[in-house]
Amino acid sequence: MGSTAARDGVERWSRDMPPAHFFFKIRSFSLLSETGVDKIESGVFEACDIKWRLCVVYPKGKLRAKGEDEEHISLYLQIVDNKFPAGWEVHAKFSLFVYDHVNDKYLTIQDAGGKTRRFHCMKTEYGFDKLFPLSTFNDPSNGYLVNDTCAFGAEILSVSSATKHECYSLVKAPIKNGTYTWTIKSFLTLKKRETYTRSNEFIVEGSKWKLLLYPSGDSRANGQYLSLFLELLGVEGLIAHGRKIYAKFILRICNHLVILKHKEIEVAKFFGDEAGSWGHPKFMKLSELESSSNGFLVKDSLIVEVEFKLISKYS
């Protein structure tokens, strides 16, 4: 179909063909506003022998400029390649896309006249601040957000026809292994023999995890606290693809006697840096843990749990 008249330097038209280089689906879109996440980045894809990613900004609405009545959702193309020498520049023409579920079409958005954009170290991102007013985007009859799912795409013009598909989802209270329980028997014996111990590996929504426990605390605990951490496995793969896993979870030492007296900490964190773990070196005082009247250590058995409230995944 022909393009519409340019408005604000932007042309829009619908087409049948999907984007040639990248298609990015987001499920559970409404949960983003609950988590406070204001920017979603896709994984890295390659086109023209250059690495890129899509950035969907302000799922709760781009901050209004003075005098504007409506908030907008924004969409950008970002160059993420680090192989360029000092002073590098990349000149690129591109189109971005939004999938119309109602008409099975791809709304194509492009700078008027196919304008060439100059990417460089001080300007690695171009796109459209006012892709849609939020009221337009959120109305299912328009086809862009249907069943809490939306999809975006990118095409670096005149290069590859290979398409990489990726879906970013947020899963609330995952059913399988949403709560992982680790029972440590002979805790006091373990404390004498081992500096630390790890649980078995468990999988939550495609991500592999372990619990890490220091019975007498790590180097920061001064021998007075138990240290407890949640570890994400395979962090190197995430870093290589420019991805991060968001998790909202509770770390817990269970009370055998009274449920309401569990020792727990709730955390919301992105995993994907080199450490790949989060925890607390001073999670619980050993004096409190080992007191027989407190109910945490019964018959030398300790129960450790992690409960996932929300977790992201790529598919």
TrEMBL record:
<feature type="domain" description="MATH">
    <location>
        <begin position="19"/>
        <end position="156"/>
    </location>
</feature>
<protein>
    <recommendedName>
        <fullName>MATH domain-containing protein</fullName>
    </recommendedName>
</protein>
<dbReference type="InterPro" id="IPR008974">
    <property type="entry name" value="TRAF-like"/>
</dbReference>
<dbReference type="Pfam" id="PF22486">
    <property type="entry name" value="MATH_2"/>
</dbReference>
<dbReference type="InterPro" id="IPR002083">
    <property type="entry name" value="MATH/TRAF_dom"/>
</dbReference>
<feature type="domain" description="MATH">
    <location>
        <begin position="177"/>
        <end position="308"/>
    </location>
</feature>
